[in-house]
Design a protein that fits this description.
- The protein has seven helices and three strands; from the N terminus they run ααβααββααα.
- It has about 150 residues and is mainly alpha-helical.
- A three-stranded antiparallel β-sheet has the order 1-3-2.
- α2 crosses α3 and α3 packs across α4.
- About 5% of the residues have low confidence.
């Protein structure tokens, strides 16, 4: 169904995202967030104050809807018009960068291990020292604490 053939009452029953989908589908062009939302405000004959107060919510709604894609130039288009090869390629590039970073991190960690001087103290000695420090502590029951007050 085309937007031009729809009555205002029919448009009011649709969500802003659904109207956006129809706009993008019919126009075969991309639009930035403000222009898309202005078209919706005009179609629904809403006041300018509505545009100013709801533009952020509209942007959030578009970003969470998988039907739309935000392009590098800041415009919105239908995800169905874009091949998944681009998305996969971007993910592959990210994976390669992650692998490079992990390799660098491991090398840095190995360098740190070589540089650090380790204390050869056994863990058992550490536990004994901790127990020695705690031997003078006394546990007081809540009832005893109330009696002292």
């Amino acid at each position: 169904m085309s937007l031009k053939s729809m009555k205002k009452e029919e448009l009011e029953l649709l969500s802003h995202k659904d109207i956006t989908y129809l706009i993008l589908e019919e126009s075969k062009k991309t639009f930035n967030t403000a222009n898309l939302f202005k078209k919706i405000v005009e179609l629904l004959e809403l006041p300018e104050s509505y545009f100013e107060t709801k533009i952020a919510d509209y942007y959030t709604a578009l970003t969470t809807d998988k039907r739309f894609i935000l392009l590098e130039d800041g415009t919105w288009d239908l995800r169905s018009r874009h091949t998944s090869d681009k998305v996969i390629k971007v993910q592959d590039d990210d994976d390669e960068e992650d692998e490079e970073e992990e390799t660098e991190d491991k090398e840095d960690a190995n360098d740190l291990l070589e540089e650090d001087d380790y204390d050869d103290t056994d863990e058992e000695d550490y536990d004994d020292d901790t127990n020695e420090e705690l031997k003078d502590l006394v546990v007081i029951d809540e009832d005893e604490l109330e009696l002292e007050e």
